[in-house]
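Morning - 2-acetamido-2-deoxy-beta-D-glucopyranose inputs below, output right after.
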Amino acid sequence: MLLSRPGGSPRLLLLGACLLWAQSCLSQQVLSGQKICYGDSTHPCYMIAYFQDLSRRVGFQEARQGCEMEGGGLLSLESEGEQKLIESMLQNLTKSGPGISDGDFWIGLWRSGEGQTTSSACPDLYKWTDGSSSLYRNWYTDEPSCGSEACVVMYHQPSANPGLGGPYLYQWNDDRCNMKHNFICKYGPEDILEKELGDRADAHHDVQATVPTKKPHDTSKPEDRFPVVVTETGGLIPNLIYVVIPTIPLLLLILVAFGTCCFQMLHKREARRNCFNDSSPLSSECLAEHLDSNL
Ligand SMILES: *[C@@H]1O[C@H](CO)[C@@H](O)[C@H](O)[C@H]1NC(C)=O
């Protein structure tokens, strides 16, 4: 039957609205880790951004902007103590909670000048993005390899077989800056302090190496905050959301179709009843009904 469907265009509108709504919900999933602080307020805080979903990992500059948007910077590692603290954070996240696995982390060490990559000077050209003058380094064997690699990650490949320099865990590697990785940010009151110290150090170049790092060597009492890892697609609930939201338009469509169908059946029945009640001048509708029922 070629009835014009009364619900046609509103249904399309409705469908469009549903799709738009679902899309805006999905795009609102912003990147938000949680800062974890150790010790008192003179110590920096850290944020580990780990993405289980490979497609959400980011390039170096994007990671840097991500940290700076929140008033911090990509992680600078200024002492072995600080390195060990981050290792411990990552270990704890690997073992428990949301459970992170393979995926390297950008840290705030890089070589900005592309031209000056010649020879043996290269390793000395790496600088901390937050202005720290710390000379602490924790390169993996044979790193940095320089060349086209100018941005540094902390290895985190717990399930990979160890290489020549041992497991690919926590030591540093330079990588191409547009590669996609997780990242770690550093925030805190020391940002200001560090700047002052840095400026002072710049004024007296001989003091540079002794820029103090009263860093969280003693991390005995971490505040009772839980590390929040950015894993939008990690848990069960986010996965459910991904499944449920796209099906909403479909469900609505089915509902509307069902409603239209019911309405038409009711309408038909009504028309038929009217025909029986008042059968004298057969309207075209009634005629159609009679023909229908006689067939
Ligand atoms: C890691 O976990 C251990 C044991 O729960 C805890 O003592 C330690 O402080 C944690 N390390 C960090 C950096 O949170």
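Note: Residues 236-277 form the longest helix (42 residues).

O.
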